[in-house]
Design goal:
Nucleotidyltransferase, domain 5; 28% helix
Length: 210
């Protein structure tokens, strides 16, 4: 994998920039959300898929990556209905990566979410702290536009803080779509073939925050 500029940490309280000083205790988690077009025309499906891929900590050199794939739920964590979109699916995949494990208990002190979504990476690094400070402004005009996916942004920030309290730092890394190809393919498959779920489900150990 090619080297990229700095991986920027999430702007959550008590978090620091992730550094390469202790790579053995840093896990890289690839995430993707896809909202594919139907074959043969330009119409989009009514569903999106999400994928999370990571390498478990193991002394066995034959250890294979673990993949979590699922269809984007119709409702969010606050039981509100949302239309499927690629941006929401990308964000939901990042949320799932932090829901899946208390990563410190798995032996990791640093988690980096690798995503090819500029929406997820730029909003995390540039906007989310301001949104929180301004009260999120859900349903109101925010800087000339509605704040989209507020429920998942709040969920993500809660999870980042919970991971930090458990002793695990979180950062994000913007990668190319080619470097994220495996996660993208799984997410596309889930969009087309994944089991539909009306309600939000936390996949893993971190079921609730706050």
């Amino acid at each position: 994998m090619s080297t990229h500029p700095a991986r920027r940490s999430l702007p959550a309280e008590k978090l620091r920039m992730v550094r390469r000083s202790d790579p053995e205790n840093e896990i890289l988690i690839f995430t993707s959300g896809q909202f594919p077009e139907k074959t043969g025309n330009k119409q989009r499906q009514d569903s999106a898929g999400c994928a999370v891929i990571y390498m478990p900590k193991s002394d066995d050199p034959a250890t294979h990556p673990t993949c979590i794939g699922f269809r984007l739920e119709d409702r969010g964590p606050k039981d509100e209905f949302f239309n499927a979109s690629s941006m929401r699916a990308d964000l939901r995949a990042a949320v799932a990566a932090l829901e899946f494990k208390h990563w410190k208990s798995e032996g990791w002190s640093k988690v980096t979410i690798a995503s090819d979504s500029s929406y997820v990476v730029s909003s995390i690094t540039d906007d989310i702290k301001a949104w929180q400070a301004e009260g999120w402004l859900g349903g109101r005009r925010h800087r000339g536009r509605k704040l989209k996916n507020m429920d998942l942004w709040q969920r993500l920030l809660d999870l980042v803080n919970e991971q930090a309290l458990n002793g695990c730092e979180v950062a994000v890394w913007h990668i190319t779509s080619e470097e994220n190809q495996q996660a993208r393919l799984v997410a596309e498959k889930m969009a087309r073939e994944g089991e539909r779920s009306d309600y939000y489900r936390a996949f893993g150990d971190v079921l609730s925050t706050s």
